[in-house]
């Protein structure tokens, strides 16, 4: 056999594999347009980490929180660009799970998919818990049992996901729009006060509020370093646009601008908001347990601002729950098609919704409702640390798949794409190194993070047993 024959044989094998993978996308309705995909990308990048968590982080790290957001946001963007390169190669509702199957094999696909499911299963439980806690803000629901609100949120969002992809997309569009509108309002009002030098609560805005209060690192370098792991998880969900690609009407046209827009939105919404916050009021004015936006608007004497922000964070939690159900249903279907999950999870209804996978996720979330009944004060702590491992695993698989795709391109096995990860392979290796640093920081966060990382061997054993069972 000649070298040309070998090359043709290899090329035909690669083509057959891609054809087989592409056949798995059949059955989905290509119903997502530019408007919806843009908002899905925004919604994945903006969550309660900004609206609620920024208050506690400002209290710990001061103005240096802006630098932490910038660094973590930059790596999140690189991860999204790595995913974008894969999406332009072959749009897939299985997202990185499908790419792991193509470039790393079925075992890697199994691990990637089930770790992602673990992430969203735990995150979804946290989301319904958050909804229940936010509902207690209003006196009308103050005495309502936490599990009742959690179950109500689950029924509403679950129903919308089972009806059809357009219902999910419309919900996510409006959820994202509420978040964007809120931050935009703050940026406009805050800029007016800053530019006009209008005093707030007896304090004149300006850069001097940073320099006179210890500079960007008032508490030293250690606090912002410790915050890195928490801020990384605030960006969890940016990869959701990859799952939506398989149901996008024109992925090659819609996805690149949607992905590229995430960088400036992170810079504006996260970094810009934090810098403006500490230039409007001393960073010591912000505190844990209260949204920094409530602190600012409250200082202006605007009534009802707490209610408005509570609606926004409630929206953010529902958005995350909505996204989790959408993505796990598609990922579980991809796993089932590859033989890495029970076959019934590949089933779809007449609306082209992988209902079996969504129902499985809903069953896990019902367990979360039970936890809200049994240990309502401990649910967050129990699930979020487990979810963090799934996030790191997901992002790591995306970058490794992108690196393997580049190697396949160099060997002539697959066609190149124009939408490439900037600076690769240097940025690919740098991103993997960053994820390892985050894992180390988690391990040093005693006791929760330490115990979570220590549980990794147990998770590995469970994955091995699951692989043996499905093989």
Automatic annotation (TrEMBL):
Annotated Gene Ontology cellular component terms: plasma membrane
GO biological processes: amino acid transport; transmembrane transport
Main localization category: membrane
Transmembrane segments: 39-60, 66-88, 109-135, 147-169, 176-201, 221-241, 262-284, 296-318, 355-376, 382-405, 426-444, 450-467
Domain of life: Bacteria
Transmembrane helix found in the keyword field: yes
Compartment annotation: Cell membrane
Record's bilayer topology term: Multi-pass membrane protein
Listed InterPro entries: AA-permease/SLC12A_dom, Amino_acid_permease_CS
Keywords assigned: Amino-acid transport, Cell membrane, Membrane, Transmembrane, Transmembrane helix, Transport
Amino acid permease/ SLC12A domain mapped to chain residues: 37-458
UniProt similarity note: Belongs to the amino acid-polyamine-organocation (APC) superfamily. Amino acid transporter (AAT) (TC 2.A.3.1) family.
NCBIfam families: PRK15049.1 (NF011623)
Protein name: Asparagine:proton symporter, AAT family
Source species: Bradyrhizobium yuanmingense
Taxonomic lineage from the root: Bacteria, Pseudomonadati, Pseudomonadota, Alphaproteobacteria, Hyphomicrobiales
